[in-house]
Each structure stands twice: as C-alpha cells, then as structure tokens.
Amino acid sequence: MIEYGKTYDEYKEIRKKTMMNATKKTKVLKRYKAKGDTKCGMCGIDLTSYSYSTGNYRVSTEYFHLVLTPLFYIDLCQEPTKCYKNYKKAGQK
C-alpha cells in the first residue's frame, strides 16, 4: 500500500504510472475463479473471497493484475474512485 494522506489527483497519478510501467495487464472479472487470497495493492481491500460451500476462492471485486517485472506484480481495483474511498477509510483508522 502507498502512504496515507495523498489527494485524489496524486492517487490517480500513482495508479496511472503503475499501470503504464506494467509489462503485462490482465483484467480479472467477477466470474473468474481465483487461486488464493488477493488484496488491492493501493487500498488494501480483499478482491477475492473464500466460498466454504465450494472450497474455492472467487473474485468479489473486478481488478487489474499488473506484472511489473518477472518477479513482481500488483493487483489494483478496477474502479479508481472506489479504490480511493477505501484508501481514505483505511487511513482514518
């Protein structure tokens, strides 16, 4: 996660630079199965949830999977406004 106290414009600029620097971008939709627990790298919310009835993880919030280097990747919420609201809530705790 990034440090708290950023304005919305600063936040959008960080997201934009992160997405531009990605070597591979994948949009993950709600209907997909997930391989495990996934959190947004900017706001920290859970992007997947575990279903006890099926024993699998499911995508609960659509997101982007960005590969920055062969060893480093980050997942970001698809909606920047919702992501920023979650970021602000986390910073107030």
- SS element count, helices: 2
Q: Largest sheet at a glance?
A: 3 strands, antiparallel
Which class best fits the helix and strand makeup?
alpha+beta
Distance between the termini: 15 Å
Helix percent band = 25-40%
Count of discrete domains: 1
Q: What is the residue-mean pLDDT, rounded to a whole number?
A: 90
Task: Note down, in words, how this protein is organized.
The model has no long low-confidence stretch (mean pLDDT 90). Helix content is 29%, strand content 30%. It has one domain (8-92). The longest helix is centred in the N-terminal third of the chain and has 14 residues, at 8-21. It has helices spanning 8-21, 80-92; strands at residues 24-28, 33-34, 48-51, 56-59, 63-69, 72-77. A hairpin with a 4-residue loop joins β3 and β4. The strands form two sheets. Strands 1-5-6 form a three-stranded antiparallel sheet. The protein has two helices and six strands, in the order αββββββα. It is an alpha+beta fold and 93 residues long. The protein is globular and about 40 Å long.
Q: Can you give keywords for this protein?
A:
three-stranded antiparallel beta sheet; 2 helices; 93 residues; globular; alpha+beta; single chain; 29% helix; 6 strands
